Amino acid sequence: AAAAGQGAGGVPRCRAAAQDVPLGQAAKGLQDSAAAGQLGGGALRDRAAPLVAGGDAEATKLFASNMNARMAQRFFNTVLLPAVQDDVREHGKLNFHLYLAVKKALYKPAAFFKGILLPLGEEGGCTLREALIVSSVLAKVSVPMLHSAVAILKLSEMPYSPANALFLRTLLLKKYALPYRVVDALVAYFVSFAADSSVPTLLWQQCLLAFAQHYKTEVTAEQKEALRDLLRAQPHPKVTPEIRRELFSSRSRGDPYLAPMAADAADAPMDLLG
């Protein structure tokens, strides 16, 4: 069994197979081996898993900082993600050290999304508890807008699942200034449910509400009409009124902007304006 600790001078070390190896050196060694073509198939998983199994989040941080983006993505996908899923499914919750490891994985956001979050969304077998844990990490860590925008775009192209809706809602609540292309893709994603015979879950409704709250002024008037039809087709007694209030009490993208003071002056009697 692997055990994590510190060597001389406080350098993080990991004890695996009776060898005391500095984690940074181990990560660099794995990257060099991969560059030489020596880590094909499951070799990366077999060699890296003992280093993470010790439960030291510093291992993941050092792997993320010492590996290039491609190798970090592979490490997250083949080592960290299976360890997280196994721990959640066995204990019903995630070990604190593994939780910190997932948090450290966001040091490389592109590798995190490609190696952990998007595979969870694509596989369809992600449990809601797994999604809740990953989303709680995502909500606490600052992530660059462009990385999150790409993830939102990819999630909106995937088939619906409760996990995907939770990931989307978490990213939308971070209130990014999203490109119009991403906003348009989200509108198309939500409108596609208008003809769906199944009733969307409350989680989906909350995701739509988060979108309406933070991007109502980024939606065109035509898109709002399409969303109005969606709300008629898929109503929710408690959430739909809130969505309507957000969408239809605000200006739309492309509307001329009239400053409040100018609007008040336009409505004032002429004699008050001198």
What can you see in these coordinates?
There is one protein chain. α8 (145-156) packs parallel to α10 (180-191). It contains 14 helices and three strands. The relative contact order is 0.07. The chain is mainly alpha-helical and 274 residues long. The chain has a three-stranded antiparallel beta sheet with strand order 1-2-3. The model is unreliable at 1-24 and 270-274 (pLDDT under 50). 64% of the residues lie in helices and 5% in strands.
Query: How many distinct helices?
Result: 14
Intertermini distance: 85 Å
Run of helices and strands: EEEHHHHHHHHHHHHHH
Adjacency order of strands in the biggest sheet? 1-2-3
Whole-number mean pLDDT: 79
What shape does the CA trace take? globular
Proportion in helices? 55-70%
Uncertain spans? 1-24, 270-274
Largest sheet: 3 strands, antiparallel
Strand content: under 5%
Output the structural class: mainly alpha
Strand count: 3
What integer value in Å does the Rg equal? 24 Å
Q: What tags apply to this protein structure?
A:
274 residues; 64% helix; globular
Task: Give the secondary structure arrangement, pairings included.
Layout: E1 3-6, E2 12-16, E3 19-22, H1 23-35, H2 43-53, H3 57-66, H4 69-91, H5 96-105, H6 109-123, H7 128-140, H8 145-156, H9 162-172, H10 180-191, H11 202-215, H12 221-233, H13 239-248, H14 260-267
Antiparallel strand pairs: 1-2, 2-3
Helix pairs in contact: 1-2, 1-3, 2-4, 3-5, 4-5, 4-6, 6-8, 7-9, 8-9, 8-10, 9-11, 10-12, 11-13
